[in-house]
Design a protein that fits this description.
The chain is mostly beta strands. The protein has two helices and ten strands; from the N terminus they run βββαβββββαββ. 23% of the residues are buried. The model has no long low-confidence stretch (mean pLDDT 95).
Length: 139
């Protein structure tokens, strides 16, 4: 299956915490960073996710925010350090590619945000992704 979601990163499930309706699944990237996905408990069961399962993390580029450093006092679980590798700008929006240990992410942000954050190739950034915006697929 081919998807329009550009952010597809391989990882391994390190833990599953099941709830009545929702579960949190922690996934370790090849570079050692952890990502938390909040998915339905039914999906965990249907896909057979257990510790050690090999998965692919999927996240739309419009769901990736960027900061110039770690952010304190925020509920966003996923803060992934990386480096800007490329910026493509359009009329109002920009596509910012970020190299992270174990993969790469693309963030769709406004041109104003690129300017305000003074982003350029080589800039250190932190990608912010809510756990509810992470999807998981079997590898």
């Amino acid at each position: 299956m081919t998807l329009s979601i550009r952010n597809q990163i391989p990882g391994t499930v390190s833990s599953v915490t099941a709830g009545e309706a929702m579960a949190t699944v922690k996934v370790r990237l090849a570079g050692g960073q952890d990502i938390t996905a909040a998915i339905t408990s039914e999906s965990v069961e249907d896909l057979g996710f257990t510790e050690g399962s090999v998965v692919t993390i999927l996240v739309k580029s419009t769901e990736v925010s960027l900061a110039t450093g770690p952010v304190q006092g925020v509920s966003i679980r996923n803060q992934i350090a990386g480096t800007v590798t490329d910026i493509s700008t359009g009329g109002a929006m920009a596509s910012v590619k970020v190299g992270v240990e174990g993969g790469a992410l693309t963030a769709a942000i406004t041109n104003d945000a690129v300017t305000d954050l003074n982003l350029a190739s080589g800039s250190p950034v932190v990608a912010l992704i809510k756990s509810t915006e992470i999807s998981l697929a079997t590898a």
